[in-house]
Design goal:
The complex is a heterodimer of chains A (415) and B (462).
Chain A: E1 6-13, E2 17-18, H1 28-42, E3 52-55, H2 67-74, E4 83-85, H3 92-105, E5 111-119, H4 129-140, H5 144-152, H6 175-185, H7 190-209, H8 235-239, E6 243-245, E7 253-254, E8 262-272, H9 273-278, E9 285-294, H10 308-319, E10 328-331, H11 336-348, H12 365-368, H13 375-389, E11 395-402, E12 406-414
Parallel strand pairs in A: 3-4, 3-5, 10-11
Antiparallel strand pairs in A: 1-8, 1-9, 2-8, 5-8, 6-7, 9-12, 11-12
Helix pairs in contact in A: 1-2, 3-13, 4-5, 10-11
Chain B: H1 3-9, H2 11-19, E1 39-43, H3 49-56, E2 73-74, E3 80-81, E4 91-96, H4 105-116, E5 124-130, H5 138-157, E6 163-169, H6 175-186, E7 197-200, E8 218-222, H7 227-238, E9 242-247, H8 252-261, E10 265-268, H9 276-287, E11 294-299, H10 314-337, E12 344-353, H11 356-360, H12 366-385, E13 391-398, H13 404-407, H14 411-419, H15 429-440, E14 451-454
Parallel strand pairs in B: 1-4, 4-5, 5-6, 6-7, 8-9, 8-11, 9-10, 11-12, 12-13, 13-14
Antiparallel strand pairs in B: 2-3
The chains are: A alpha+beta (415), B alpha/beta (462).
Amino acid sequence: MSTRTAVVVGGNRTPFVKAGGRYASASAQDLLTAALDGLVARFGLAGQKVDEVVGGAVLKHTRDFNLTREAVLGSALSPHSPACDLQQACGTGLEAVIYASNKIRLGQADVAIAGGVDSASDAPIVVTEPLRKALLALNRARTLPDKLKALSRIRPADLAPVPPAVIEPRTGLSMGESQALTTARWGVTREEQDELSLASHRNLARAWDEGFYDDLVTPYLGVARDGILRPETSLEALAKLRPVFGKGEDASMTAGNSTALTDGAAVVLLAEEEHARGRGWPVLARVVDAQVAATDYVTGAEDLLLAPTRAIPELLARNELTLDDFALIEIHEAFAATVIATLTALERNGTGVVDRARLNVGGSSLAAGHPFAATGGRIVASLAKALVARGPGSRGLISICAAGGQGVVAILEAV
Amino acid sequence: MDILETIYGTPAGRFVARKAGLADPPRLRRGRVLPHGPIVLGELDGGGLARETLTLLGIVPAAPLIDVPDARTRDDKGRDVPPCYPSRPGAIVVDATGVRRIVELEGLRQLLRPAMRQLEGSGRVIILASDASAVEGLEAKAVAQGIDGINRTVAKELRGGSTSNLVFVRAGTAAEDLASTLSFLLEGRSAFVDGQAWRVGPAKLPHALTDLPFEGRVVVVTGAARGIGAAIARTFARDGATVVAVDIPPAGDALAAVANEVGGSALQLDITAADAGRRIAEHVASRHGAGARIWAIVHNAGITRDKLLANLDEKRWASVLDVNLAAEMRINDFLLHNDVPGGLGEEARIVGIASTSGVAGNKGQTNYAASKAGVMGLVWAMSEELAGRPITVNAVAPGFIETEMTAAIPFVSREIFRRTNSLTQGGNPVDVAETLAYLCGPASGGVNGQVVRVCGQNLVGA
């Protein structure tokens, strides 16, 4: 039986900023390269080979078919560092950490970097389906009349580019619209959501002020702190915002309690425990175990973003743990209402009650922003560091909901 | 760039400037490059140390010409001129370590006169003299100081980027102790060091001189994200160092770029943090191996908050003193008194950055001058306090260096600042870096408690 253990050594991310903002001219590859270079510098890895680099993006150009490998080649790492892309919607970053940790445990790698990037500014803009079909017909046409016939099928409306949108293909609903159904079904109030959002901003602002992110973030393009963070926001200010998702009187989801489209990248340095110790590296936390689950959201029987409430009980049972065994719990804040519905669902399905004092103590996606595939890396690195401060053996639970009705959850344990 | 500067940069502007006496400054020889022409050795009675040291450096010196009446020739206008070298010498080393009497100073005149107009561009005058502490009697001590007067004046009279510097040799100094200093002065590394005098004594632990003195050694550089700090990181890395580049978190992206370029590591840290010394040691141990120790720490980080004293508040006062002086002292204090993984090695080098503003004062910089003069005081006091440990403490005092910081000075003032020195130009960040690398070299163990100005012999405070 192998005794290899995968540990989190450290992490790095760019500050996160609102899409179309300071990183508007940066591509996803630029962002991922910057995050890698910051990590390489932090750990003195310039010119060195890493056994595997795994990353991904949710919004992806066809030109980014080999995104992570291209980022590695543009970074200060040795070109002998292999890389692959992986994608599981908002679960990408955490799934990348799981993938790399498993390789480390199996002895296929000693050192790996896992993470992700998303740039809603660099999102691919595609052509309409009628235009695409007409262009294919034009390409097939041999004669002039045939060519003209193909062209004549194009209507002016077909020429408009199709902007990117995060729409569930099987329901036709956006993320926000899907969550609005969940918000209503689970009776999540506006006040609860705004309070959670306020706590996220306060917690993240405090962590920044305490220097918690000094060794977790490297500035990028003149941005040194997360751009979405509003340290001065208040319940009053949040209460004034108009609902943007949901219908009628009960609509409660605003720009203040929903994550904004965000640009950013995050990576985590993972290593086999003994290898890390041999190099004198910090050994922050073990990647103990992970679980993925999915919901039957298409029929409407379940919720799009509550798959973690299926994954968490499975993970806890396998590890013979309860929610009380965790010093810290990180539930990705896709929307404030997602977190609250998740907590309620965990209580109702008998998993247990999450102590709010242990929840997202350093702030989460509402305040930091949510560059889809980068969120997992952000959470893993900061949770690992926070667990160290709570002493050896402290456990942390990560829960990330993802498009397609999926949920990725994992356990870290301070060494 | 203002309009004057734009015009000044055009061919027509340069033509007018040259006519007005603002000639293009000489291009200085830089890097690990010896002079092209022969290295002449002039030995006065009682000398010998210079020849031994040159031999150690693998240099076969050429014989000097002496300006005595019989040796003079007449030029086409019938004037007496000193004897003429067959080819332009690259440097003249004057070994005056045996000179004790006023009349013996004539020997320096005889050796230096022929060289004054014949040295090649970026040539070198290097004078070795016995330190006043190493000689007996009033005349000998006065003569020692008199030689510095010669040195400083020669530096001002030399043209074409040539420099003159004086090394005061303490009692018991051997050729091995002097090799790093002589090598530094001869090579282009000392390009912007001019008219200076400093002391060299016996090293506590001997090390041979090499071109990769920092191979396998960790060097910590604060303020390394840009300007002089980035040049320091590059220069130490060129000489083999594993560089730990430190700067404040908001400068992290530039810092990472420097660290990755030199194959070192980056530490985002505000050096004014109370635990900065401990965090530096932790970083060294957790990045460069549990057994890694700091060979040298370069306290380069510094800030300015300029205001005339009439307008200066307590905030601008305190921040400059804290960053430029107090933080450095706290870090030293931790590293010197805590034997921790990643801490200071048994033998180590501590270097700081003073400033000509600290030497001479500068309008609008009471706070800065206090901090930088404080660095000099710290160097002198620490080198005495650490006399029992094989650790050296030194500093450089830069003059006008071309950086983003000085580029912000209005054009006319900047042009005046950069030209008011014997080399009629600003120095480059690498000039400061080279001097620091020399002071930190393993072979420079005999250089201790010194503040070396890198200012092209700035008129200010000279």
